[in-house]
Amino acid sequence: MLVPPYIAGYSGDVKKEITGEGDRWDQGYDVTARFLDYCTSLKDGFVAELNNELKTGYSVNYFSDILGRNADQLWADYKAKYSKPAQGQPIALFCTS
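Request: output the structure for the sequence above.
Response:
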């Protein structure tokens, strides 16, 4: 069942900001909760649908069945949207003239 780990990614009733942290979408409660929030931003009710699917077991196809993209593709999109450059890493700037 997905809901308890999803809820465990939050402190009390306060949702945490999506930060783009983590190396994998299933890395831990905080990372997974934020990733599932991102998925919910793509489709309202995503977590409820996913949880319903999980009642019969897990399949790697659930993300693509619900959102049209697999978990790895969604994770790449999530990281591209929310990741911040590591401290000390230069930010690439491109100028056109």
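DSSP finds five helices and no strands in the chain.
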